[in-house]
């Protein structure tokens, strides 16, 4: 074992504390609280700017909206989490002309090939951020991380009541610091790059399409 | 490290003479600057935000040892293994040991400037391990055996024709195309197979949160998520200054970073990793390692003025606004970090004797400071480094390689200067002589410093009469 840790800490400890820290830290400016409709509108506009497709629907009609979307595309399957409310709702009303529902039920080691080959996946979200236009995802054992990453189309269901004003607000209100999940994500659109001449191109390594179904009940 | 003999004047000449490079850069830098200005269009709000960014980074640095220990404790509780490295060599060895323990030969990498600092790819390749860059820009330059020329947009020195030719030549069965979307699709296809087969993923870290033991990564492409999600092992490498105290410190820094770097409100992905895969989870790496690299940072930290260098969040906007960088590009600097941040960081890491010239690659226009989202006093630090270049005294905080510029002729000149200014009659004599001989200076025998200086500059004409003399003629009292 090297002594790197001890040496580094000893070097840092050898320096007398010196204040480079500002004694009074500027407080965060108070954020104007947006109403529900404004939050939805802002999130939709910003995410659409980033080439996401955003559909405002409600908890009775969202499956039909989803089916319409799927019928417009020719997809080889829809990956879902079978034991979540979304998964069970879909299983109950699935129709034969739709891409088959495929459950993410095994560990990635057993199904990696299928995960990388399936065209689309549907997930829930933990919430949204109105100020920047983004979704919050906390993947779970039922709804794992690769669902929102490996397939070319990611469909996300967002309940309007869970849209926060900002990330700071979400962290504070939901007390994230008290327990972070294995992986927390903010997603603001389909994957993109501007690495060639700063030309913005969508669909790099992550999904090429992001479709958000907002349930506004 | 490796770049011991950087020939700055030659590099600069070459870069300045490269018309293609200058056109590629100019267009890109103007665009990035404009996007940033559009996002931070309210100057008052921006000042408030960056005052917070500055304060958060200062607070984190003021508690650095404590926060590093807390980060380590939290990460360890969460199941992330923490490693400490004093040098790039140690950090490389730590990565290699982990990779070897898993018998892995295929490493996929997300963008990380610290791994560039370590020259990790080269190190692994020499040991038979493929280390593949997966960020599109990084992938492009790796194909061409180049290093990043910008810390945010690493292939910005290349235009689409150059990339089209490169892909056509280096990727088997690839037709020549200049269509950016098609170039992008080619890279997507090649890299998707690599993500699928990658055995170890390596990433950088944008912020590490001590409070929760969370590693934050900012990206647009999804390759960072791939590298940290698909392979069974994830190694994150970070400079030890990247720690922040609390989770709530993250949102303002995130806004400052994405806004300054590319003018985005937020990137496509913000990826927060707090633990390896838990027993009941179906994907994600089973092992997550965090490598904390010092490489001179503790020394920089010890000095209150120089410490401010470590506030940097690597947004790259100082490069985009620098009149020197925007004309040279990153490669001319010869080191991993170019532009204003490189010019203050590199000489401190590598030592003034090898990289001190970087501190002179500045016009002191201060544009970098005006835009820096964490208010680093870049010009003060540049000035300090220039002073240190002539400082022989071995004080504890003296920068590595200090005093390297001290030479007898120059000392003598300055002694003469001091004498002249303290002794009126010598000064008067000098003024007269310069008035007479000034124009001949470059042609006179002696040290060729004047000749060198005038090669690319016009020699200012010396006045025939000194200010003292003129003032006296006008009848103004002259003390
Ligand atoms: S010095 Fe400031 S402007 Fe430059 S990269 Fe760092 S944070 Fe950005």
CATH topology of chain A: Rossmann fold
Mean pLDDT of chain A: 94
CATH fold type of the domain at 64-298 in chain B: Rossmann fold
The CATH homologous superfamily of the domain at 64-298 in chain B corresponds to NagB/RpiA/CoA transferase-like
**Count of discrete domains of chain A:** 1
Number of strands of chain A: 12
| Outline type of chain A | globular
Low-confidence stretches of chain A are none
Taking all Cα atoms into account, the compactness measure Rg of chain A is 21 Å
The CATH class of chain A turns out to be Alpha Beta
Give the count of helical stretches of chain B: 23
- Summarize the amount of helix of chain A as a percent range: 25-40%
Quaternary class? heterodimer
Low-confidence stretches of chain B: none
Largest interface: chains, residues each: A-B, 75 and 97 residues
Strand residue percentage of chain B: 5-15%
The CATH superfamily title of chain A? NagB/RpiA/CoA transferase-like
**Strand order in the largest sheet of chain B:** 1-10-7-4-2-3
Which structural class fits the helix and strand makeup of chain A?
A: alpha/beta
Each distinct ligand: iron/sulfur cluster
Topology:
The complex is a heterodimer of chains A (217) and B (479).
Chain A lengths: L3 H10 L22 H14 L3 E5 L4 H11 L5 E3 L4 H9 L7 E3 L4 H10 L2 E5 L2 E3 L4 E4 L15 E7 L3 E2 L2 H7 L9 E5 L4 E2 L7 E2 L6 E7 L2
Parallel strand pairs in A: 1-12, 2-3, 2-4, 4-7, 5-8, 7-12
Antiparallel strand pairs in A: 5-6, 6-9, 10-11
Chain B lengths: L7 H9 L2 H21 L3 H20 L1 H15 L2 E5 L2 H14 L4 E4 L3 H6 L1 H7 L3 E4 L2 H8 L16 H11 L9 H18 L2 E4 L3 E3 L4 E6 L3 H7 L3 E7 L3 E2 L5 H13 L6 E5 L13 E7 L3 H6 L14 H4 L4 H4 L10 H12 L1 H4 L11 H5 L6 H12 L18 H15 L1 H14 L11 H7 L11 H7 L6
Parallel strand pairs in B: 1-10, 2-3, 2-4, 4-7, 5-8, 7-10
Antiparallel strand pairs in B: 5-6, 6-9
